[in-house]
Amino acid sequence: MRVLVVEDDDRFAEALASALTDHRHKVVRAGRADDGLRLARHADIVLLDLGLPDRPGLTALAELRRVSSVPLIVVTCSGEDHLVLRGLRAGADDYLVKPFRTDVLLARMDAVMRRGGRPRRGGCPVVEVGDVRVDLDARRVTVAGAPAALTHREFDVLALLAEDPGVVCTREKLLSTLWRDTMPSSSCSLNVHVANLRSKTGRPGLIVTLRGVGYRLGG
């Protein structure tokens, strides 16, 4: 897998690149946001630090999301709740706080990537809820005929719900399937992605919350 590491700390970037290379990933490193934005189109996944020298990482993330849905994990030193929320709302698929174990990063990378490459379960490849059309095979969502710009992880959440339209999907299933854990940080991330889906589609009733249980597609 081609991994773009956007990180200005040389020592950390070298250690991270070495660990990823040991696990047979091809790593490209950028030390500045401008270089990261230029190289992102060639990457399978981006690991983005927020403390970059030429511009704030969140600004770079927002700029990248305007032109690309490449899977992206924020990898940074600050785990303050408001920064985590801002990162996820800006389009990050996941958020990891330094220091972290390599196996944790690899698991998160795999969780972000594997839904897109996993064979879809049997059933209708296209699900329609009102004027929202979810093409599970093409990984495409349209609203009233217009494409909805979703991140990789946002589509994953919607696709898992769309695999069984009208059936409640528990929070535990969503978290264990997409994040591979049920930690509070992952639960918070799920909340943000659901809110993003409602906002980006402009259909607040697209996903119905069943408090204490989970979610289902509306309609």
TrEMBL record:
Residue ranges of the annotated DNA-binding region, renumbered to this chain: 124-219
Stretches assigned to the OmpR/PhoB-type domain: 124-219
Pfam families in alphabetical order: Response_reg (PF00072), Trans_reg_C (PF00486)
Positions carrying 4-aspartylphosphate: 49
Keywords assigned: DNA-binding, Phosphoprotein, Transcription, Transcription regulation
SUPFAM superfamilies in UniProt: CheY-like (SSF52172)
Signal peptide limits: none
Residues covered by the Response regulatory domain: 2-113
Record protein name field: Sensory transduction protein RegX3
Native source species: Actinomadura yumaensis
